[in-house]
# Entry
Amino acid sequence: MADLSENEKDNLQQTLAQSGFRPLNRTERRNIWLHDYEQQDIALQSWARLVEQQGLEIEIMLQMQGLLVFGTMVSTKAYAQFYIDMHERMYRQSSPETADFLQEYYVALVPPDDQPEIGPEGLPTIFRYAHLRDVTIMSAGHKIKVPYWRGMINQVDAFVIGASANG
# Structure
């Protein structure tokens, strides 16, 4: 809102007031965080933090709702860059606006380099997604391979560090 004129700010505040929208207060944000936190596996959160903050790549198997998902856990940045590059090749010449839109989408997924360890709730930042590369997904004897995969960390039932679908 810093770039808006006073009149634009007033109009925006009136529109928000009329819509019934209001930002969450600190207590509400904290309650949401506590709800999310109680569903997290702290060990998996720690691995995700290492991957995101230090750029490590870790061989892992995730068990999720009966599926086994094998791959190398990578940062959100690596995941996003793969799709940015792919969509550049696919759409830049024929549909530049599509390429621009997809680039903006994937760039927005990447947490900032200076993301604080303590979030706006006054509590540690939670990583909500795991990103894997060179993925094999197994279910009831079926096996598929995909280049990249994104899954919700709080949906993981179990994990094994160092596991490989080839071994």
